[in-house]
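ok here's F-box domain-containing protein, seq below lol
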Amino acid sequence: MGSGFSTSNTEGSPKRAVGLGDLPENCLAMILGYLTPPDICNLARINRAFYRASSADFIWEPKLPENYRNLAKKLMFYEGSAKCLAKKDIYAGLCSPVRFSSATKEVWMEKEGGGICMLASWKGMKITGIDDRRYWTHIPSLQSRFNTIAYLHQIWWLEVEGELEFEFPAGSYSLFFRLQLGRPPKGQYKTAKPVHGWNIKPVRFHFSLSNGEHATSQHFLNESEKWQRCHVGDFVIENSYRPTKINFSMTQIDCTHQKGGLALDSVFICPKRLDLVR
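and the structure came out like this:
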């Protein structure tokens, strides 16, 4: 079944093909409303009819988070300016990463499903011995969205703590620590550093929310030279208009042995349904 067909007049001369682009604009918009945002944008490039239809507000508003006006005001515009923009433009604006909290945190909306994602850099965390070069080194790295990672040479007592507060839209979320055993490459050279102590006792990860939710997990770190997301747990946000405060931590405080050779980048929060693609 094709998207177009030909007809003939009474004298047998052919008329031009009729396709989806000849449908009324409101009909095209209703069809586009069933598609994902990336698919809508791809179809909008086909012709002017699809482009005009793709701008209808009723297509984009159901795909925006419930509290999109508050998010747009905080992340995109001055107060009230969101009322002047089309919903398509607000969707596109929220998909652009925005940094806050002295550029130690980054938030954006994922294009496919309209969920909010967030990264919290190690730079905004409280880390035991972070300013002592005997223990930690700050390494420039293109493998981090914040362009710098913290590399642990060795330590007896590992303790990393952080917090954030944000108006997450209602839904289920997952929280991860992004780590790597072994020193990431710097430039075109790679300096081998010994990885030790992580197979003796597990690392403890924890988070707690201002609504009372909390989760704890333990992981033995054993995948060297590969960035991994250690899943701490999942949580649920019920009120989109109430800021949620999250405290998170990573500890290994067994002082019977040293541990070292660990790269720390960030904490990652995303909608739970994205777990399958991590």
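fwiw The chain has three domains: 21-61, 64-96, 115-277. kinda neat tbh
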